[in-house]
Amino acid sequence: MTVISEKQEMRLRARARRSELVHALPDFVERIAAYSGQLPVVRDARVSGYRALAEEADPSRLLEALQVPGCEISYPRVHRKGQPLWFHVPVGHEPWLSGAFGIPEPRPHWPRVFPSVLLVPLLAFDAGGYRLGYGGGYYDRTLAQFRAERTVTAIGIAYAGQEVSAVPRERGDEKLDMVVTETGVRRF
To answer: Which residue range is the domain that position 67 belongs to?
Structure first.
C-alpha cells in the first residue's frame, strides 16, 4: 500500500470519527476559546484562521478571543491551484466568495497580509505533530514557504478524538507546532 492510498483510507475513517465527535461535543467552540491565553500570540499579532465547514473543528470563538488583545485576523484564499495560500483581512460587511470545495474565501481585493500564526484545519493528527489534511497540500506548501522566509507558528484546531497513532507521511508534509482541542493546548 502506498502512502497516498494510506492517507485516502485514513481520511475516510477520520471523517466518520469527526462526525461522531461534532455531535458529542456541542460546546467545542466555547471550550477551545478558553485556551486563547495559552497560545503563543502576542499583542497585535497577525493570526490566520479559517471558516469551518460542516463538522470541521470550528475556531470562530477562539478567533474572537484573540481579537481582544488586538490581533489582526486574516483568512486563507486559494489564489492559484497548487500554490501556497494567500491571506486577507476581511473588509467591512462585504460578502465572502465561494472558493474551491465550497469553502468561504476572502475577496482578492481585501488587504493581503503575512500572518505569523496559522490556525490549521485537519482530519487527524498524531503525537509527532503531523496532520492529515484534505489532500490538496495547500497548508503544507504555505508552511514550507513561510518557514523558509520568516518565523511562523502552525496550530492545529481539532477534537481530541481526532488523534491517531501515526499519520502517514510524505516528503513535504509540514509539522504543526501545537494543537488546540477541547482538552487543552498540546505542544509538539
So the answer is: 3-123+138-187
